[in-house]
Amino acid sequence: MVTRVNAQLEWRDVLGAVKVRLNIGRMAYAVEPGLYAVGNPEETSPVLVSANYKLSFDYLRRELGGLDVWILVLDTKGVNVWCAAGKGTFGTDELVSRIKAVGLEKIVSHRKVILPQLSAPGIAAHEVKKQSGFQVVYGPVRACDIKAFIHAGMEATPEMRMVRFDFADRLAVVPVEIVEWAPHVFLLGLAMLGLSGITGVSYDLSLIWTRGFNVFMIVLGAFLGGSILVPALLPWLPGKAFSIKSLCVGLVLWGILVSVLNLALDVWAMLPVILSITSFMAMNFTGCTTFTSQSGVKREMRYAIPVQILLLITGMILWVIAGIGGSL
Amino acid sequence: MKYLSNVTTLALDKEKCIGCGMCEIVCPHAVFSVVDGKAFITDRDACMECGACARNCPVEAITLDSGVGCATGLINGMFGGGGACCGEKTCCSK
Ligand code: SF4
Ligand code: SF4
Questions:
Q1: Residues lining ligand 2, CB < 6 A?
Q2: Closest chain B residue to A129 measured between Cα atoms?
């Protein structure tokens, strides 16, 4: 019934983590729901509740070296705590039925379960108590504070209760964003490449290799630059809305790209294209952050998306005009 | 880091509040503090509308329109795919 797990990670776990970050085979990366033992837990040992997303689970057990605890893994369909709580799969019903399914009341003598604080959007603590008899204790936000939390008699400091959004946290989500949007951006790059051959008199295929190649690199550069630099520099970029924060990054990228590639007349056509792409990618980064509200994002999208579309169309028109102008 | 001001839908009914302190515990942005048996909203604009406080308030003193602040999810939702955010392919990996 109970599976024993190690507090050490093996290289297989680390390799798997890299794959998940890159969005490869993500659904298959789930842990079997149920009760797990770390060390030699007894009936008085604490019970920690986790999602069955392998990354969350591994992260948690890695922090438990030297402790004797139970881990109750819920079936969150392989999704991490925060997202599963938002969806309701890390929820009151699942917790109550999992407590019953493993017979937790016969395994431990106390009546407490420790949940990650970030699962709170999905769990109604008073309902869990009513339906299962177990009291929900919200632990710290980060697994690395678990030991300190348990040693302090299940008291969290205010610092443990706050989400942070550090440099590493911000960069960790970049690959997923890139993989998500790359196909769309690739198509946009191809469209711009196709437009490059239009001249005043005919369609010049040889321009595809010169202008077309340049514009493709610009689209790609704006995409990668926007996806990486905006998250990396987020706290220091001026503005509150992400689409505004991206403006500085867009301008700098434009400066770099036009000085690297020899563009002549096309310089001005590229500015709106770059601004549009960086702004769009920045706006999409809202979902990865830990402080943007849905009402805020909706408001931002209402004005940002029309502007982004307008910028892109303007850039495409200017690009064609520059092509015609260059050929005359 | 703060996002846009004056947009959150968070509302607290002081009359109903019994001062249990749950909202203060679950909020990841320290929006609430409980003083003399009543909850107060101390930092409204820090609210990310996660819904944790409302869900865990035993007397339903807190209301809000909760959801995930994620443009990708909202765009996917608009085109009928996957609902608002947190699909397997969207970004959130907190
Ligand atoms: S959770 Fe509800 S009852 Fe408890 S302190 Fe907060 S508002 Fe008051
Ligand atoms: S919705 Fe979330 S962020 Fe906003 S006050 Fe409640 S717990 Fe805090």
A1: B 10, 26-27, 29, 31, 47-53, 64
A2: B58
The b/e string for A244-266 (b: 16+ C-beta within 10 A; e otherwise) is: bbbbbbbeebbeebbeebebeeb
- Tell me the CA–centroid distance for residue A291 and ligand 2, in Å: 10
CA-proximal residue: ligand 2, atom 6 (nearest)? B53
pLDDT band, very low/low/confident/very high, at A287 (cuts 50, 70, 90)? confident
Q: How confident is the model at residue A199 (pLDDT cuts 50, 70, 90)?
A: confident
| DSSP secondary structure letter of residue A53 | B
A241–B4 C-beta distance less than 8 A: yes
ipTM: 0.80
Below-70 pLDDT ranges, chain B? 68-69, 76-94
User: What confidence score (pLDDT) does residue A205 get?
Assistant: 80
Give dist(CA B30, CA A182) in Å, integer. Answer: 37
Question: Measured between CB atoms, which of A121, A156, A240 is closest to B66?
Answer: A121
Check: pTM over 0.80? Answer yes or no: no
Q: Which of A30-39, A281-290, B66-75 has the lowest mean pLDDT?
A: B66-75
- What Å distances lie between residue A148 and A140, A207, B28, B30, B45, CA to CA? 9, 64, 18, 20, 30
A111: pLDDT strictly greater than 80: yes
Residue of chain B whose Cα is closest to the Cα of A115? B26
Are residues A296 and B8, on separate chains, in Cβ contact within 8 Å? yes
- Domains identified in chain B and CATH numbers: 11-64 (3.30.70.20)
Token pair, residue A264, equals 């002549």
Domains, in order of start, for chain A: 3-163 (3.40.50.11600), 168-327 (no CATH)
- The CA distance from A20 to the nearest CA of chain B, in Å, is 10
Residue with CA closest to ligand 2 atom 3: B47
Cα end-to-end span (Å), chain B: 17
Instruction: List residues bridging with A138 in a β-sheet.
Output: A115
Residue A263: the pLDDT is 63
Rounded Cα gap, residues A100 and A107, in angstroms: 11
Distance CA A2, CA B39 (A): 42
Which residues from A are below 8 Å from B22, CB to CB? 125
